[in-house]
Design brief:
140 residues; 39% helix; binds adenosine-5'-diphosphate; binds magnesium ion
C-alpha cells in the first residue's frame, strides 16, 4: 500500500441535485483527502479531449454534451491506494450493476449520468490531474 493521488469529477447530475457535499463525505469517511478542488464549467474542447479515449464508442458525442451540460467539480484525492480505493467507492459504471453502498448505487441516475468519474490507473491519474490542475493548486 502506498500513498497515491487520483483524479475525480463530480458530474453535472451530482451538482444539479446538490450532492457534492454528500459525495465528498463518502470520500472523506473512507480515508480519501480532498487536496484540490474547483467547480468549473467544462468546454466542449476540454470534455472531448478528456474523454478522447472513448472517441470511437457510440456514446462519445452524447457523453461530451452531458459533461458540458452543467457545472462539474474537479478534484484531486489523496490517500493509501487512492486510485483503486476511489474506484471501489464509486462502484460499477452502470448503477444497475453497482454494489450496495457505492456512490453510483446510492446516487447515480443512469449509466451515463453516474455522478462521478475516477481515474482507472495511476498513470492516467497523473495525466488527468495535470489536465485540470497546476502544481500550486494542489495542497496536500
Ligand atoms: P468509468 O467511468 O466507470 O471508468 P468508462 O470509462 O467506460 O466508465 O466510461 C466513461 C463514462 O462514459 C461513464 O462514466 C459514463 O458516464 C459514460 N458511459 C459509459 N458507458 C456508457 C454507455 N453505454 N452509454 C452512455 N454513457 C456511457
Ligand atoms: Mg473510465
Amino acid at each position: 500500500m502506498t500513498m497515491q493521488r487520483t483524479f475525480s469529477i463530480l458530474k453535472p447530475d451530482a451538482t444539479e441535485r446538490n450532492l457534492t457535499g454528500k459525495i465528498n463525505a463518502v470520500f472523506e469517511s473512507n480515508g480519501l483527502r480532498i487536496v484540490a478542488q474547483k467547480r468549473i464549467r467544462m468546454s466542449r474542447l476540454q470534455a472531448g479531449a478528456f474523454y478522447g479515449v472513448h472517441k470511437e464508442r457510440p456514446f462519445y458525442q452524447e457523453l461530451v454534451e452531458y459533461m458540458v451540460s452543467g457545472p462539474v467539480v474537479v478534484q484531486v484525492l489523496e490517500g493509501e491506494n487512492a486510485v483503486q480505493k476511489h474506484r471501489d467507492i464509486m462502484g460499477a459504471t452502470n448503477p444497475a450493476n453497482a454494489a450496495p453502498g457505492t456512490i453510483r448505487k446510492e446516487f447515480a441516475e443512469s449509466i451515463e449520468r453516474n455522478s462521478v468519474h475516477g481515474s482507472d490507473s495511476l498513470e492516467n491519474a497523473e495525466t488527468e490531474i495535470r489536465f485540470f490542475f497546476s502544481g500550486t493548486e494542489i495542497v496536500g
